[in-house]
Amino acid sequence: MHPCHHAKTHPDKPAYIMAPSGKTVTFKELDERSNQIAHAFRNAGLKPGDTIALFAENSARYFEICWAAQRSGLYFVCVSSRLTAPEVQYIIEDSGSTLLIASAGKADIAEQVKELTSLGHYWCIDGNIDGFDGLEAHQTAFSTTPIADEMAGTDMLYSSGTTGRPKGIRPPLEPNTPIDADNVLLQITRALAGAGPDNVYLSPAPLYHAAPLRWCMTFTRLGATLVVMEKFDPEAFLDCVQTYKATHTQMVPTMFVKLLKLPEDVRNSYDVSSLKFVIHAAAPCPIPVKEQMIEWWGPIIDEYYAGSEGNGMTWAKSAEWLEHKGTVGRAIFGELHICDENGDEVPVGEEGQVYFGGTAPPNYHNDPEKNASALNPKHPDWSSLGDVGKVDDDGFLYLTDRKAFMIISGGVNIYPQEAENVLITHPKVADVAVIGVPDEEFGEAVKAIVQPMPGIAPSDELASELLEFCRSELSKIKCPKSVDFDLELPRHPTGKLYKRLIRDRYWGKKESRIV
């Protein structure tokens, strides 16, 4: 399946609608414009296997560029619109991009990037950028028919940098692969999400991130209409569901938390009965949060665990989760293995590092050391994303935390996700991070950094209330010893928490930026 087929059968059907503007691009327009841009790529000297970079906010032009690259056999690097010029420069140069396309909304950064780099071409969309060629005007000189040498390209995405500098994931490109060739995510979406051309898929997240980009492009392959939010807002999300009769969506747990913290009368004022399927990932979801979401929306909320690396995937339907609360599912792509520090498998129910076998290992661009570190020391055909978890007797995986976030206090391993899952349910907490901080006696002490709800003032009394609340749910050793407050935690729009930035404040390291 491919949007070019839907352009023939349903040319006037909306391929996607931008919210809140309502700007619409039909399948015919998407097909023709992506063909024009594909011709522009070839005219610029780009050949299959080359790389372009896209630096933009969510835009009606975004998918035209992605599909143009996909049908030209190119790698397309979707760069976070939150980056500084040196961070964009790093990704452009590391990926080997030879063309940068930037949106006018990022003009200040894009102009700096042009000064720092020496690419063959700089194009802009959605307005003018000094020194950039306007793509919308440029592409009109080219044909709306396909290029002669179409072949499938793919995304090359960079990790979000939550534990270090972002790394590019560059999957191999098979020469002459048809642009409408099947793939694993397409098969999963049809089989488990019941997806098809009658769906309306609501995307509330930044398109430069792996999950929103890939889910959107998959639903477009299937002929569904996308509704793309410029940015997530909980009440605006509910309004989009009601207005567009959305049937499918992909979310992250922090979005659930924000929805549940809306006043009950606001939540109940919107009709969400059109929703048939909701998928979430990116971080473990606190059990009480998911219980409330299923009670509100019904057993339509599925969960998966996977990474941009594509080395494995687990999946849990709502009914399975309700029987195995806290799970992220059973393996549907790859074989699960839980291993100790030596690489040996541990018994069922014991924690260890999560590995997938029977799949291709991650391919981190220009980083052979990271590629090697992802492999099991005794089973080099098993690879890991660096997470810690356990499986039960039925094969369901439960994530404990990222290995890099583990706190060692007095020789005891503590995974902060447990305390975070408890504290986020407190009505006075908007967001929370639990980290290890230096401690002379124990090496590390457990600390919570809390973002209070609007209107709630930080105080010693609130800190004591939160500590007592946590101790009522977890053993004392797993709970924070102290609480600090922050007006806003550094969280990526996709829901990932930049815990390393918070840790750096307490460990005397120079604070790095969100990437």
TrEMBL record:
Q: Which InterPro entries match?
A: AMP-bd_C, AMP-bd_C_sf, AMP-binding_CS, AMP-dep_synth/lig_dom, ANL_N_sf
The terms under GO molecular function for this entry are: CoA-ligase activity
- Residues of the AMP-dependent synthetase/ligase domain: 5-359
- Locate the AMP-binding enzyme C-terminal domain: which residues? 418-496
Domain of life, source organism: Bacteria
Q: What is this protein called?
A: Acyl-CoA synthetase
Q: Which organism is it from?
A: Hyphomonas atlantica
